[in-house]
Predict the 3D structure of the following.
Amino acid sequence: MNVEQYISSGILEAYALGELPEQERLEVERNLKLYPELRKELALIEETQEKLLIKAGISPKPSVKKSLFAKIDAADRGAKVVQLPPAEGGSAFWKFAAAASIAVALITSYLAYDYRDKWKKTEDNLAELTAQNQQMATDYNTVNQRLDQIENDLRVTNNPDFNRILLRGTPNAPGSLASVYWNEKTKEVFLSIQDLKELAQENQYQLWAIIDGKPVDAGVFDSNFKGLLKMKDIGSGAATFAVTIEPRGGRQTPSLETMQVAGNVVKG
Amino acid sequence: MEYLYDHYAGALLGVVARILRKEELAEEVLQDVFLKIWDRIDSYDAGKGRLFTWMLNIARNQAIDKTRSKEFSKGKKTGDIDNYVNRIENEGFVEQKVEAIGLQNLLNTLPEDQRFIIDQHYLKGYTQAEIAEEFNLPLGTVKTRMRLAMKELRNLLK
């Protein structure tokens, strides 16, 4: 490194001003250790800076000093005690004391080791228990949500205003079975699946209500849900409910040839 | 501690006041600075520089932190460095007045471009980066001018 050039770049001044970013500051500190010329130069810069700033100083009011030292006293920072190492002594007492301290140190370090070991084990156990606890909480939440859903479903199936329509399999799918719960007053429609085959990813089931001979869209669904699924509202006059297979997202008009299940409304 | 205060409080208040430009706030910050110095004196490492430089950096950082605080931005517009000039000139700080005039004369002997950098930094409280940005100078130029000025002052202040 060219020390002259380094100095004349003004980097030491910037260092003395505390204006260097962390990385450059560390670099300067490294170089200061390596080059005595830099240390000498920095000392001169700092001296000049100090003289200049003392000249440019502004005396604080006497009250500032009073208040500051009151704060120092109040915080009991007034006495910083530095513990000095005890003077050497050759008496038997000191030998005994030294032996005793070594014994205490040995016992203490054994105990420290032992406690650390126990502490480590305890910590592991705790981590395991915490994980178990979290798993339990998750399970509990799942069960709770399922229970809430079942309670809601029961409110529908037990309500006499809901008409249950059984949708039986068509020749396309003789074993299929589903149910629609329809409340003609509130227009609400719920669907439950007893047995419908799995569909390819690009397809979805679509529920239709036939009103005055015309199919009305009642919403699309996948076959992988449990309990009751809320569908689109259907007003009065539906005579039949049917399910077809449509491209994902559904269609405006049903592909009747894919009809899976159907059932007529029986007026109670 | 009292020695440090008697010796350096003036210089540090000057630094803090030039950054904050509000007399009461500066004196409050000066107290914080000395409390901090008192707390951390054990961590001062003589290998990294003079004690004054260490204290100076604490003071500057404390003052700059203050400029970022809420308290500061509230009353920023009302205070001004002129308050200090007035105080020095009007309230009979005779000693300081003499010193201040002496300092001004001293700085006047520097070449204009160097005097400007010293003035902006040490007397107006701008950082090197701020001077570079404000006056559209490369940071390297600010640094080398500062360096030349400090070298000159070294002889003048002997």
Summary: The mean pLDDT of chain B is 77. Chain B touches chain A through 57 residues (CB under 8 Å). Residues 133 and 139 of chain B are 8 Å apart (CA to CA). The radius of gyration of chain B is 16 Å.
